[in-house]
Amino acid sequence: xxxxxxxxxxxxxxxxxxxxxxxxxxxxxxxxxxxxxxxxxxxxxxxxxxxxxxxxxxxxxxxxxxxxxxxxxxxxxxxxxxxxxxxxxxxxxxxxxxxxxxxxxxxxxxxxxxxxxxxxxxxxxxxxxxxxxxxxxxxxxxxxxxxxxxxxxxxxxxxxxxxxxxxxxxxxxxxxxxxxxxxxxxxxxxxxxxxxxxxxxxxxxxxxxxxxxxxxxxxxxxxxxxxxxxxxxxxxxxxxx
Length: 241
Description:
The protein is an alpha+beta fold. It has 8 helices and 9 strands. The chain has 2 domains: 103 residues, no CATH class; 101 residues, no CATH class.
């Protein structure tokens, strides 16, 4: 017996993810069946003895991880969703469960192809960082907390400020006083705190003098995305040493 999670979403996004998730632990595979194709998610986490409700919960958690990962890769577009869940028994008979729908914001990926002198081509899949980030998340409670906030409401300046606080408290060097991003972080902090620059989404309600050139909400989102990525990449680099 096997549990299969059928995904729907942008073809390019699903194809990119299928190129980086292909281990028995977690696989996204394009399936050709009769006159159509679909992307199937399978995992050793979907134990054969588990009931549908438990499999659905595990699948939702996996898709939420994809949500945060794809949001960090920018340029949101069509969501990835669980279209349905299938249980296949030993005889090949399928039972289809249609009630599960959980969205994950996708991103526009740009795969990089590098030509070598010998004529071969080395391709780097833009979804590769997600694998590393989610691996770190499994072992780091601060990363897990940041991913929760990304999934909660990354469009909110208050959510982005909480993420900033977590990363700074985690000891990320570029955010410390007089380091690489300290001045920009101070501009972010003052802009997000002030209702004259952030409007009703600001952390505080009372009007005080805003920065001369406050950071816009769009700029703050780009700044926090950049911080998260550099923070995660630093953790990945440290774990490799």
